[in-house]
Amino acid sequence: VQLVESGGGLVQPGGSLRLSCAASGFTFGSYDMRWVRRAPGKEREVVARISSGGIINYEDSVKGRFTISRNNAKNTLYLQMNSLKPEDTAVYYCYAEYRYDSRLNYWGQGTQVTVSS
To answer: Cβ distance 78 to 27 under 8 Å?
Structure first.
């Protein structure tokens, strides 16, 4: 099983980034997927979630700025991040959740997003 994030980097405030998470080794379409971030000195935070059926939820601070999507044919999860703020700086992880058995949940290795001028 692998979840491989990409697309992070350094961006100026107001800029955009698109994160990708390539999944392999499990039935991607059967999983609920999340983007989770951890900022220095802060607790882990779920920023966006998309269910296997396509239901989407966002954390309040990213609503209207971030868009989560998935392409089940490509086994890939995305996070489009616009109007980035310094407080969005964090390591972003994708997380695969199998609602019927938590032993089959998986984490990616994370990708660093830094928003700074």
So the answer is: no
Q: Which among 66, 44, 70 has a CA at the least distance from the CA of 55?
A: 70
Mean pLDDT score of the chain: 97
Q: What are phi and psi of 39, to 5 degrees?
A: -90, 155
Provide the pLDDT for residue 112: 98
**Model confidence band, residue 80 (pLDDT cutoffs 50, 70, 90):** very high
* Rounded mean pLDDT, 104-114: 96
Spatial distance between the Cα atoms of 25 and 2, rounded to a whole number of angstroms: 6
Q: Coil, helix or strand for 31? A: coil
Query: b vs e for 56-89, b when ≥16 Cβ sit within 10 Å of the residue's Cβ?
Result: eebeeebeeebebebeeeebbbbbebeebeeebb
Identify the sign of the CA torsion 90, 91, 97, 102: negative
